[in-house]
Amino acid sequence: MQSQENHPRFQRVLSWIVPLAAIAALAAWFYIAPPGLLGKADAIGYAICHRIDERSFQILGRQLPLCARCTGEFNAAAIALIFQGFVSRRRSQLPKRGIIALMVIFFLAFGVDGSNSYLYLLKQSSPGILDSIPNLYIPNNILRLFTGSGMGIALGAVLYPVVQQTLWRQIDERPALEWKSFGILTAIVLVVDLLVLTDSLVVLYPVAILSVLGVLGLLTMVFTILWMIIMRLENSFEHWPQLWLSASAGLTLALLLILGIDLLRYQVTGTWSGFPGIG
Asked: Structural domain tally of the chain?
């Protein structure tokens, strides 16, 4: 295993290149993204979400950056990661089997509701032979929010310990989530979802921002881990400040992915809203 200290010259070069690349990627993304805070949030959501208006919650008649399902998913994932950061610290093991079983149920609910909703969308946008296929039920934004949130909890609960396993030289081998902490996390997400359903501006605005930060955070974490694996830096860190270079690389790659998808989608559709003709 090689560490950062084994390549001082290479590390010095990277310490200049990576931050400059991050600044360039961020500047390019800011340039193409719509104006305003919510406009920038829209540009992040645009890279991973269909952004269909009728399948999204609204702030004063303006759709949120993510659809109802993605809002639930990435808002819950962000809450799960922040919660574990405070409660679990460097715990690096996956939850116990009972919690894993519950998360599998969350995943199945997400899959069933998503498939049913997608079939309903196809029948609306392309009537014909699909009309003979019955839907399990009429999909709605409430179910999309809650099933998305369940998936977000599962994502955060799995990704957090995987990241901890990859980062640290000394690993805390306790589960990142026990039954008590998992119950508290689920209750927090449930309360936030219920508050979202009030359509209060005080709730929806921070939820909109937190959900897109969840997208950016998840992508950054995944690309940071990928960077560490490529650079053979796994389990070579002892303190958070040592992560700045790898985290900058992860952020750069995340921004480049978002920028690339944004440019491609805008070139194809010509709009920052949902796909034209789909509603």
From this structure: 1
Tell me whether residue 278 is in a domain.
Answer: no
Of the candidates 159, 179, 163, the one whose C-alpha atom is nearest the C-alpha of residue 171 is 163
The answer as to whether 201 is a domain residue is yes
Q: Is residue 203 domain-resident?
A: yes
pTM (2 d.p.): 0.90
Task: Give a yes or no: residue 277 inside a domain.
Answer: no
At 218-248, the pLDDT tens digits run: 999 999 999 999 888 999 999 999 999 899 9
Residue 58 φ/ψ, nearest 5 degrees: -125, 145
